[in-house]
Every structure is written in C-alpha cells, then in structure tokens.
Specification:
Order of helices and strands: EEHEEEHEEEEHHEEE
Helix content: 10-25%
Structural class: alpha+beta
Distance between the termini: 28 Å
Number of strands: 12
Length: 208
C-alpha cells in the first residue's frame, strides 16, 4: 500500500541538552515511556487543564519530533520559544512532509493512539502524494478507534482531555459533551465530582 500525504500535519523539532526536562514540565506525555524510534501521544494544556493542541511526539537520537496540526504549529513554536527562556533548547520546523501508511515501511513509527491508525513516515517535501481513499480509510479508522483530534473534533481550549488518552493524573476534572468533526462524532462522559471514576468515549455515526 502507498504512503499517503497528511497535508494538514506539520513537524516541529526540539533538541538540545535541556529539551527533555523542559518538555516533561510542559506536555502531558511522559517521555520516560518513549524510547528512541517510538512515539507517544499528548497535549499542551491551558492553566485550567483544557486542551490547546494535541500531537504525536517521537523520540529521535538528537531530540523530539512533534507531529501536529498545521494550524497549531506556529503557536506551538511560539509557546516553546517563550517557555525555554535561556535553556539549551533548539526549536525548528523541518522542511519535511508527514506520511501515513497501513503497511510495513522503513523507519515508520506506529501511531501510539491505536493500532488501527497505522504508522507515520517522514519524508522530504513532495515525497508523498495525497490519496483520497487512504484519507477516507484513516478517518473511518479514527472514528472506530474512538480517537479525537483537536481542531477537527473539538475546538482548542474548549474541552478537558480524557485521562486514558493523554495520560493525565487522576485529579484531573472532566465534563460531559459531544465532540463532532468532519469524520464523525465522539461522545464522552465523565463525572466532575468523582475524578477517579471511569469515563469513556463512544463512537457515533459520521455527520454530514
């Protein structure tokens, strides 16, 4: 199967001796669980705990590669630049493309959210072509896997993240709601008053 170009995704690289300590303080991903060549999933939150943006982060030999929505990339760079202060952290946007594959590919990194979502591949500009069938397949799989994405299924800054998806601590608070996007709807429920209680997403039929 071919590699599909994810046109709405952009890469940001953070490197330097203090990149990991900085990120461990700022994002929901526990980078101790992400080894070289593998990826974790996480988010950057508001002080109130709502999702600003979400991303897939891959540990590389020389730093951390973030795969995130293109519309969030500049804001992510701006925030990381602000937070790093005088730390030894380099922030750059590689001139590269993000590809999606559902088959074995060299250097492909499995999507950490669900095995249904295939793997990500990084290539040079123009290395991958957009494939309508694969995009439709990805959207359908994402709904089946009950995986929400900021900017597609909910507006950044509007909702609290589900603990099972972002690895948040038990003290986090959630609310009830319905997340709807072009690929379908993801309903979730939780208790404000019992933060340790279970909460779940439910896949719904795609909306027109």
């Amino acid at each position: 199967m071919s590699i599909h170009h994810l046109e709405t995704r952009t890469l940001v690289m953070l490197s330097g001796s203090e990149a990991e300590p900085l990120l461990q303080r700022l994002i929901t991903t526990d980078l101790d669980d992400v080894s070289v060549g593998t990826a974790g999933y996480g988010a950057l939150l508001t002080p109130q705990g709502k999702i600003i943006m979400d991303f897939i982060v891959t540990r590389k030999a020389d730093g951390f590669l973030f795969d995130l929505a293109t519309e969030a990339a500049d804001e992510f760079v701006k925030k990381m630049t602000l937070y790093r202060m005088r730390s030894d952290v380099t922030i750059e946007k590689p001139d590269a493309a993000v590809g999606l594959t559902f088959s074995e590919q060299p250097d492909a990194v499995a999507d950490p959210r669900s095995e249904l979502l295939g793997a990500r591949v990084v290539g040079g500009k123009g290395a991958f072509a957009f494939n309508d069938a694969m995009q439709a397949e990805y959207d359908a799989r994402r709904v089946r896997a009950v995986v929400a994405e900021a900017g597609r299924d909910f507006e950044p800054g509007d909702v609290f993240p589900p603990r099972h998806q972002y690895g948040l601590p038990a003290r986090a608070r959630f609310r009830q709601g319905l997340l709807c996007g072009a690929g379908g709807c993801l309903a979730y429920e939780a208790s404000r008053h019992r933060p340790a209680s279970p909460h779940h997403y439910y896949g719904c039929e795609p909306v027109a």
